[in-house]
Amino acid sequence: MNTVTKTYRHEYVIGDLQGCFDAFNRLLVALDFDENLDKIWLCGDIVARGEDSLSTLRQVKALSDKGALTTVLGNHDITLIATWRGILPIKPKDNTAPIFTAPDCDELLNWLRRQPFLVCPNDKTVLTHAGIPPHWKVKGAKAYAKELQIQFSGSLKQLDRLLPNLYSKKADVWSDKLHGYDRMRAIANYFTRMRLCDKEGMLEFSFKETLGDKMPKGFRPWFEWEVPRKRKILFGHWAGLKAQIATDKVRSLDAGCVWGGQLLAYRLADEKIIVVDGINNKGNDDE
Q1: Cα–Cα distance, 73 to 117 (Å, whole number)
Q2: How is the chain classified by DSSP, letter by letter?
Q3: What is the pLDDT of residue 5?
Q4: Is the pTM higher than 0.85?
């Protein structure tokens, strides 16, 4: 049976929403977005520090249900799921409490936990929340993302066993021989928390600043380790970059909307950038 691929008028990749409901809707107006003609790809971190995470999550799910939107999961999305399952307390800095008392909470979170960690918007690009480490090929990354998605989207008992094992201050050294929860934690860290790594792929979690600041010895931004790839990597997560990384290999898309920056849309067909200003300024602490 042949699969018919829908052709869209415009496709946009949008940076981290972080619950910035007002900015998201202003951006949709700026794009003249039509849910019947256009498609949105989100970089993850749908919720957290913005003014209305509940309405943002509802709108994202509604657009997804209509086939007008696809998102990957980010670290704040995982935190939301873990809080829902009682693994973590509500973080004081997050404005997510209304989600847990909403009548559609379980519906929203069951939908969220089934979203992917990696997607390919077209045959030239690949999208994850934080990026792809230099020691992974895109083909391998697809397989690892699927492994993790299967764990998240399985039974709630399986999810409840997984979630407590995803949190560790120690970075795992990647090896194909990793198994069990150590493997799942490493995969989750690469896709949702990565900024700096060494040449072997060891992650460094403390650095969140801009590229001009001093970095720990031996570590570089993951995208500065030169690796030939056929697909451009699109990513969010690192607000400190201010969406200024734009090469033929990578494109950063988190322009720090929730920190008083901008919400950015990247049009896939011609790489045009459309932005709207954020309304918040809470300091850059996006873990």
Answers
A1: 5
A2: -PPPPPPPS-EEEE---TT-HHHHHHHHHHTT--TTT-EEEE-S--SSSSS-HHHHHHHHHHHHHTTSEEE---HHHHHHHHHHTTSSPPPTT---HHHHHSTTHHHHHHHHTTS-S-EEEETTEEE-SS---TT--HHHHHHHHHHHHHHHHS-HHHHHHHGGGG--SSPPPP-TT--HHHHHHHHHHHHHT-SEE-TT--EE-S--S-TTS---TT-EEGGGS----SSEEEE---GGGTT--B-SSEEE---BGGGTSEEEEEETTT--EEEEE------S---
A3: 74
A4: yes
Query: Does 283 score more than 70 pLDDT?
Result: no
Token digits of residue 64: 């997804």
- 140 Cβ contact list (under 8 Å, min separation 6): none
**CA distance linking residue 76 with residue 286, whole number of Å:** 9
Question: Given a cut of 60, is residue 285 above it in pLDDT?
Answer: no
Is 126 within 8 Å of 234 (Cβ atoms)? yes
Model confidence pLDDT, tens digit, residues 81-104:
999 999 999 988 999 999 999 999
pLDDT, residue 216, reads 85
pLDDT for residue 200: 84
Q: Supply φ then ψ for residue 83, to 5 degrees.
A: -70, -40
Inter-residue contact 74 to 16 (CB < 8 Å): yes
At the fourth CATH level, the homologous superfamily of domain 11-277 is: Metallo-dependent phosphatases (3.60.21.10)
pLDDT in tens, 21-46: 999 999 999 999 999 999 999 999 99
List CB contacts of 4: < 8 A, sequence separation 6 or more.
none
User: Residue 81, Cβ neighbours under 10 Å: how many?
Assistant: 20
Distance CA 16, CA 215 (A): 24
User: Rounded to whole angstroms, how far apart are CA atoms 256 and 17?
Assistant: 9
